[in-house]
Amino acid sequence: MNNENQPQRGDIYWTVFEPSIGTEVNGKKRLALVISNDWYNEEYKRVAILPISSKTHHVYPFELYVGKLIDDQESKIMCDQIKSFDKWRLKSLVGKLPKNLLKEVETKLKRFLLLPNKTD
Known about the structure:
Blueprint: E1 11-15, E2 30-34, H1 38-43, E3 46-53, E4 63-70, E5 73-78, E6 83-86, E7 90-96, H2 99-113
Antiparallel strand pairs: 1-2, 1-7, 2-3, 3-5, 3-6, 4-5
C-alpha cells in the first residue's frame, strides 16, 4: 500500500479472517474496523482491527450494536476480538465509521482493557 492508500483509524474494510482457531472469529470474507492509530498505520505493515458481525441476535457487553452499517445489514462491532493483521488482509475499503460510533467503540475498548475512561 502506498501512503495515499494507508488505512486510517475508523476505516471499515472487507478482510480475510482465515485461518482461525477455536472460538476466534472466522470467515473467508468479513468486515473489520481499523482501530490502530494513524501514525502506527502509516509506519508499520500491520493494523489493529475489530471484526464486524452480522449476527446481532445477541449483543454481548463488549460488543457495540451499530445497526445497518453497510449494505442494509444489521451489524455489531466485536470489541473483545482485537486482532493484529498484516495489511495484505485488508481487501477493499468500504467506508468510515461515524465519529460518534468510533467514540462508543473506544469506550467499550477502555472497559474491556480496564483503561481509564478520561477524555483527552
